[in-house]
Amino acid sequence: MAIKTEPFILNIGPQHPSTHGVFRLRATLDGEVVVDVEPVIGYLHRGIEKLAEGRTYTQNIPFTDRLDYLASITNNLAYVLAVEKLAEVKVPERAEYLRVITAEMMRIASHLMAVGFFLNDLGAMMTPVLYMWREREKLLDLFEMVCGQRLTYNYMRIGGVSHDIPEEFLPALKRFVAEMPGFIDEYDQLLAGNEILLVRSKGVGVLPEELAINSAASGPVLRASGVKWDIRRADPYSIYDRFDFDIPVGSAGDCYDRYWVRVQEMRQSVRILEQAIPQLPEGEVCAEVPRLLRPPVGEVYGHIEAPKGELGFYLVSDNSIAPYRFRIRPPTLINLTALKDMVIGWKVADLIITFGSIDVCLGEIDR
Amino acid sequence: MTLLEQFQLWLATMWPEWAAYVTPAIVGVVIVIAFALCMVIVFIYFERRLLGRFQIRLGPNRLGPEGIFQPIATAVKVLLKEDIVPAKGDKWLHWLAPLVVFVPVLMIFAVVPFWEGAIFIDLNVGIVYVVAISSVSAVGIYMAGWASNNKYALISALRMVAQVVSYELPVILSILGVVLMVGSLSMSQIVAAQTIPFILLQPLGFIIFFLGAVAEMNRSPFDLLEADSEIVAGFHTEYSGMKFAMFYLGEYCHALAYSCIIATLFLGGWRGPLLPPFLWLLIKVVAVFFVIVWIRATLPRLRVDQLMSFAWKCLLPMAVINLFVVAAEVLWLPESLPWIMVVVNFAFAGALILLWSKLFTLGGGRVEV
Amino acid sequence: MKFERYGIGIAKGMALTFKHLFRPPITVQYPEEKLVVSRRIRGNELVWYPDRCTGCATCAKSCPQGNIEIVTHVGDENNYVVDKFEVDTGRCMFCGLCVESCPYEALAMGLSYERAQYRRGQLVLSKEELRLSDVRQPSGYARPKIEATLPEQSLLVNWDREKGGQKLSLVPLSKKRGRGV
Ligand code: SF4
Ligand code: SF4
């Protein structure tokens, strides 16, 4: 005999320990069971798309830092690739390599955050987060060495990168690349076989393959559902076609697979770094590009595989110094649309970890 | 004859009877509460530093040498905070709840034997008293959750009731195993009977009691009612100032009390060679607490339905089987050969855990809505 | 969804956290110990060299935020005399575009990152405040010559865990660098 209960609305956020920023969820609960969720976004809206229409192409680069602030370099990269496509700029070889190296470092750093905070949502009391922060900190040190900041790098420029690397960078990076697989093994020791993690996340928050494709999910969320789709392979940009790496694919599309795919991607990123460092050629790091770039009239969509998914920039040029239209396709906003289908019928705790496993970044969602 | 009773007899030789009766009681209460509160402060410091070291950080180390005054600073900070009562909350219950949580926990210490005879009152039903009194604080937590008029607090309170009710059973059943062996409910007799610590004689009982105790004191991985990633701070979301301090102290007191009970029931209490008995008890208590902190630093938490099925599907049947096995052993095994029992019970515990891991799944899946 | 591995995973995790108990902590006790920042750090300030500045306002034009306010008049030798050079560091995002674009190397990012103030108005830096001084040193961002003179950054990667202890190079403690201007 089921007792009749009345659903009630629980307001999660915008101030809540596990909303990863200022995100609000209106969850309708029946006891502990989630009946309905409605994400409420926009608390971090800064109007970047509009602001960008009033600034030159170069001046927009620091704004892209503020989208997904945990992966600024890839935002820079996506934007400059789009502009370069529009203006048909040729990028020097060394700059291409530096872009790939920094982008893969960024992917590792971003996934470390994602996995760490996923575990925090599971209730692991900061320990995995702090272990992972230690490695992320090393990467941030390296970024600081190259471009002077730890979070908002503003490193890419149209036609290359802003600075060449200092000479102590490569030895330090090599050291990092050498020790990183050992640390990933340690994380696996701590987490991968943990029975509580398994019972909590296996089969929870399943995103079926078909639904994942239909909701245009991308990145680890899509790959965890079993779709082998990585823009680095599907539509190779920069020089990714020169490197040998695998695309880890999950099967079940549950929270555990999303966690697992991220860990494997870190390993693959380390592999790419291992290949890229010895190949790094000498030469210029930035092509000659006029400071006030006036791309020809036209429109372009440039997209890359950012750590969180497909990050795209759609630019329309009217041959002036500023873009006529500047549109961002943020990966996590679109991944978030599938949240409701993943969590209905699960418990509140599952809602939280499923949300955490999507790995959202509010700077990007609200723009 | 406990020390306090001797004190009372001695006083009765010169003071009027009522004074001789009241004075030792007051002295005892003061000593026990002082012990509990001092230990709680030490525990708070110990846990913070230890968690820090587990997480390759330092932990609080600014105030005083190695930060030993940090708990005091925290206490002062908490006490100076404004006391907020939710406008639509139930004011009286909101005020009463911290007391109802805190006082019963302190009362547990009345039956903890510190060394031979040093026990506030040697109740002949000591262990039943512990079980009874420690679940009273669940009422307080439920009151807090209800009175706060906050949905997070309410969810937490409901979880609490479910959790405490389900974990009480395996805890009691595993205690019964010990009681069967000793043949007495009195805490001091339980200690006296442990020539071999009961952790060796009853490994399964120890594991069940330990897990149940961790669940009852709401520690990770069963810390569902303070699951900060889900329901913020749980039942004390709406508490601040002095009242919050009561919950905070109550939580650590609970941990301390259960560490004492575990040490007494399964680790031989104050018994131990060389060192003075009181020190032995302290060492054991701190060791138990260390394991609790260690677990907290490592494990994620379970989900609410998994928590319940863990209690009902795993702990409870295992505790029942354990009880029967112990009863059989007490009946039929020769008392002169306790080591046979150690070997048998370890093998048995291992087999049972393996079997249960094979047989049962935890928790349900998606609910159709 | 079973306890498939009989608690082995939990035991392995516990072993790992226990191992970390004996690793040296990576905490840096901030106000007492300071890490050496990158040579290219984009600190929370700008350094302006009045003698090199021609008042061309390239920096002001390249700033995405429009932070730099320059007022000039034409001087005796048909040059620009800078009357006002004001940077609102409260709105600055320290992107470094102004420094990169200055053709005369008259502007540099600062080294310091301790520039918190109590009032927003105090963050607006005038011509005098922007000058080079004891507490306002330039960083090597886009200025290779300055970069070569700065000490090497302390890196966590180079920190030797096996040797134990804190092996990161720290800035020697000095009172002078403590507070803002
Ligand atoms: S650092 Fe960037 S935001 Fe700040 S003044 Fe220079 S150009 Fe403007
Ligand atoms: S760009 Fe350089 S020289 Fe020109 S006004 Fe700015 S600081 Fe002065």
Structure, described:
- The complex is a heterotrimer of chains A (367), B (369) and C (181).
- Chain A is α+β, with helices and mostly antiparallel strands.
- Chain A contains 15 helices and eight strands.
- In chain A, strand 4 and strand 5 form a beta hairpin.
- The longest helix of chain A is centred in the N-terminal third of the chain and has 29 residues.
- Chain B has two domains: 78 residues, no CATH class; 288 residues, no CATH class.
- In chain B, helix 7 packs parallel to helix 14 and helix 10 runs antiparallel to helix 14.
- The C terminus of chain C is likely disordered.
- In chain C, strands 3-4-6 form a three-stranded antiparallel β-sheet.
- Chain C is elongated, with a radius of gyration of 23 Å.
- The chains are: A alpha+beta (367), B mainly alpha (369), C alpha+beta (181).
- Chains in contact: A-B, A-C, B-C.
- The interface between A and C is large, with 48 and 42 residues.
- Bound molecules: iron/sulfur cluster (2 copies).
- The site of one iron/sulfur cluster has 13 residues of chain C, from helix 3.
Record the strand order, biggest sheet of chain A: 1-2-3
Which small-molecule species are bound to the chains here? Answer: iron/sulfur cluster
Task: Compute the average pLDDT of chain A.
Answer: 86
Estimated structural class of chain B:
mainly alpha
Annotation field: number of helices of chain A: 15
Average pLDDT figure of chain B: 81
